[in-house]
Design a protein that fits this description.
- By secondary structure, the chain is of the alpha/beta class.
- 39% of the residues lie in helices and 23% in strands.
- It has 6 helices and 6 strands.
- The chain has a 6-stranded mixed sheet with strand order 2-3-4-1-5-6.
- It starts with 7 loop residues before the first strand and ends with a strand.
Length: 145
């Protein structure tokens, strides 16, 4: 009998502003682009404008900047998600939980799901959130708890 590994790596992130979030995400996304891993962003709000402003000010090569800007920073419901994807969920706790539930119930395999929470909204629930995740994404990258 062959048992398939359907690993879902659960990573959380806490941010205080859109720019703060984007500054944390840019190195992670750049690395995944370099490694040719699929990246899907599911966001409750449109981050395209703030991201364009930030991208114009950061020190990345032009090709990487273009690839980052080509990601859909305004998608609430992406069309296709592949196995082995990095899925970045951005929004309220309810938004993230509802999208995660759909992902967990899908037949997708080997996902890295990064839940990005606004610190002000979840401040009183941080401990609960941390306990349900494997790792944390912060300015140092992905770290263990």
């Amino acid at each position: 009998m062959i048992i398939e590994d359907n690993k879902i790596e659960k990573i959380c992130n806490f941010y205080v502003s859109d720019f703060h979030l984007e500054m944390i995400l840019l190195p992670y996304i750049s690395k995944k682009i370099e490694e040719k891993e699929p990246i899907i962003i599911i966001s409750e709000k449109n981050l395209e404008k703030s991201l364009k402003e930030l991208i114009s000010k950061v020190n990345l090569d032009e090709e990487t900047k273009i690839k980052i800007l080509e990601l859909d920073w305004n998608s609430k419901n992406p069309k296709e998600i592949e196995n082995n994807s990095n899925i970045i969920l951005i929004g309220s706790k309810n938004f993230i939980e509802s999208k995660k539930k759909k992902l967990y119930n899908s037949n997708l395999k080997n996902l890295k799901i990064i839940d990005c929470y606004n610190l002000e909204e979840v401040e009183s629930n941080i401990k609960e959130i941390v306990l349900t995740h494997d790792k944390n994404l912060n300015t140092l990258g992905v770290t263990n708890f």
